[in-house]
Amino acid sequence: MIAEAIRQIETELQGKARLVAVTKTKPVNLLREAYDAGCRRFGENKVQEMADKQPQLPADVEWHLIGHLQTNKVKYMAPFVAVIHSVDSLKLLQEIDKQARKHNRVIDCLLQIYIADEETKFGLLPEEAETLLNAPELNDLIHIRIVGLMGLATNTDDQQQVRQEFRGLKQLYDRLSAVQRPNVAFRELSMGMSGDYLIAVEEGSTLVRVGSAIFGARN
Ligand SMILES: *Cc1c(COP(=O)(O)O)cnc(C)c1O
């Protein structure tokens, strides 16, 4: 039951973090079911899929792009995307700024940080994120706002390892929160998925991205 799962997760979050329901690969009727259960934030990992679904849901849905993003795809979501969680380069930020400007918008962005002990995950190293936040070129980008960080923990049963990875990301978040730039204002720490969102909230997450615990396993 989608509504029941959402209610349970909301109860567990205790208002400490907000839920992004991850709807990738799921048909629009299930998104409507989640919407009717009160969900207003949806996360997709592919731009095209998100752009296809967006007009089919009410306008008060916040769309979150959580997957790896290529510069040539930014234009398809620039009119409506609320938060891009997966920014990993200045070049990408420049393209988001350029496309947001065409729609007279300011798009909230999170820097994706590499925290997992895995080869396959995308993201910036902590020192790369710091360099990016101090890049002079950032001054020109008035149509983006960097509002925090995102990270994926290692896919492991070792909860202690997952906790340490989240804790490290929170420490980086706290440190980089001190950066003073016109378009940098940290307030979101996106961490936690179906298997680890409770740990993530204990370690300071403000946005959890939960898919299979709501909608069931993906094929
Ligand atoms: C798919 C995905 C999730 C949700 O994963 P679940 O384990 O189904 O909750 C969260 N974050 C990202 C970046 C994802 O790609």
Which value, in Å, is the CA radius of gyration?
A: 17 Å
Number of strands: 8
At CATH level 3, the topology is TIM Barrel
Can you tell me the CATH class? Alpha Beta
CATH architecture: Alpha-Beta Barrel
* CATH superfamily (homologous) name: Alanine racemase
The set of bound ligands, ions and cofactors reads: pyridoxal-5'-phosphate
Pfam families: Ala_racemase_N
GO molecular function: pyridoxal phosphate binding
Function: Pyridoxal 5'-phosphate (PLP)-binding protein, which is involved in PLP homeostasis.
Family: Belongs to the pyridoxal phosphate-binding protein YggS/PROSC family.
Characterise the protein shown here.
α2 links the parallel β1 and β2. This protein is globular. The chain has an eight-stranded parallel sheet with strand order 7-6-5-4-3-2-1-8. Helices cover 37% and strands 20% of the residues. By secondary structure, it is an alpha/beta fold. The longest helix is centred in the last third of the chain and has 18 residues. The chain has one domain: Alanine racemase (TIM Barrel). The model has no long low-confidence stretch (mean pLDDT 97). It contains nine helices and eight strands. The site of pyridoxal-5'-phosphate has 14 residues, from β8 and α9.
